[in-house]
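Field reference: sequence -> structure
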Amino acid sequence: MNEALEIGSIVAAEYKTGEYIGEIVEMSSAPKAAVKILAVVKHPTQGDLHNPMNPNVAFFHQRRALAYQEIALMPLYTVKPYRGTVPEYTVSLQRALQSELQTLQQTVQWAQRCIEELEQLKKDYSV
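Structure field:
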């Protein structure tokens, strides 16, 4: 447990597939804390988490980042004290979204390069 955490603490916490900076507004007896969102660190992952990297699923989930000052129940094991400067929400959201886009674009480029290499190997193996 995180005994150092209390109402008013500024924390970094994970919610589903996103990561946020926020303020604890309530501690309950359950293993969760109510956290008011102040900034986005990592944008939530898109798609079906049970079928990662598969675009052909029955329901491809679109996940929005939690909104500014939205309150979410965060599992205590993901809640850690945050010591840095809290970035402005809109700026943090834009950075997190851009980072997620860059990661996915790099994944697409990596996959395309893999396909090219495998196509070459396919030709070599046919000899």
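Note: The domain at 10-125 is CATH 2.30.30.430 (SH3 type barrels.).
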